[in-house]
Design brief:
This protein is 34% helix and 29% strand.
Length: 295
């Protein structure tokens, strides 16, 4: 159980306790899509073998949002609607107007919904009750917003704000590649992306490439800024820092050892190790970026 992407928020209000969280999530569980619904969302247990909606390790709490969506490809809708439009045209002797075509498409969707396949996905997040942070495992801004919206609706009085730093990640990464000192706990790896600041946003990408200081400095002098940078923290965890403070492609380096533990025990031990290491990684990243900005 390791998060591969981090989208971090700070908890701004709400006296949340483990019991109140468990109770709140249990009252807003995932239900199957109704016959005429396109989507349903609700809380699910992080592990199917467990009954609780919160997996607990000390003050670190793991939760999961389930989303069930019906799949209705646009091509299928359009083909069915086209057939119906052709039939109506033959019956009435002239082509349907725009409003009639819109009504036909809406009727087609209603007809097809009960026969649509469903797809389920689960998004995990962990609440660091010590640092007052919520960390969502997603690279998608939409999924992060969906998760936050569901949590705020489920837990009374709970509010969140994106984690922000006094120095923007892009400014700091650009300075680091320009030769400014970086905390010795971090090393710069071989992937980065620079982007122009004009309307064209010309982009230069390096992948598995030794980042030559003179070469990257030339791009920076030409007006480009760093928007993604691969790094390693404390020789333990590699990741890519993005200009929106998102961490992606997180990969533990020799932290996880081979184990003879059961699946359930391994899940619990991985979560314990992950939260301890990633909590400190986030703290060190924030410190390297000038500290948290609460404004």
């Amino acid at each position: 159980m390791w998060f591969r992407n981090l989208q971090a928020y700070r908890i701004t209000s709400g006296n949340i306790t483990l019991n109140s969280l468990e109770e709140a999530l249990s009252q807003h569980t995932l239900q199957q899509c109704m016959q005429m619904e396109m989507q349903s969302r609700g809380w699910v247990v992080p592990r199917e073998e467990q009954q609780n909606f919160v997996h607990v390790y000390g003050q670190q709490w793991l939760i999961a949002l389930g989303v069930e969506k019906k799949l209705l490809p646009a091509g299928v809708i359009n083909q069915h609607a086209k057939n119906r439009i052709t039939q109506i045209e033959q019956m009435q002797g002239y082509k349907p107007g725009k409003k009639q075509i819109r009504d036909i498409k809406e009727a087609t969707i209603i007809e097809l919904l009960p026969r649509a396949f469903t797809q389920c996905h689960k998004t995990y997040a962990w609440i660091d009750a010590v640092k007052n942070r919520l960390i969502i495992d997603t690279a998608s801004a939409n999924k992060a917003e969906e998760f936050v919206e569901a949590l705020i609706k489920s837990v009374h009085g709970f509010t969140l704000a994106p984690l922000e730093t006094k120095i923007s990640p892009s400014s700091a990464m650009t300075r680091w590649l320009s030769g400014d000192d970086l905390s010795s706990i971090f090393t710069i790896d071989r992937d980065c992306e620079l982007q122009g600041m004009n309307d064209e946003k010309a982009t230069v990408k390096y992948t598995h490439h030794v980042l030559d200081a003179d070469e990257t400095a030339r791009h920076i002098r030409a007006g480009k800024k760093v928007i993604k940078l691969a790094m390693t923290w404390n020789s333990k965890i590699s990741f890519v820092l993005h200009d929106n403070l998102q961490l992606r492609r997180i990969a533990p380096q020799d932290i996880l050892k081979e184990s003879t533990e059961s699946t359930e025990e391994l899940f619990a031990s991985d979560f314990a190790i992950m939260t301890g290491e990633l909590s400190q990684l986030i703290t060190d990243i924030v410190e390297a970026l000038g500290g948290e900005d609460h404004d």
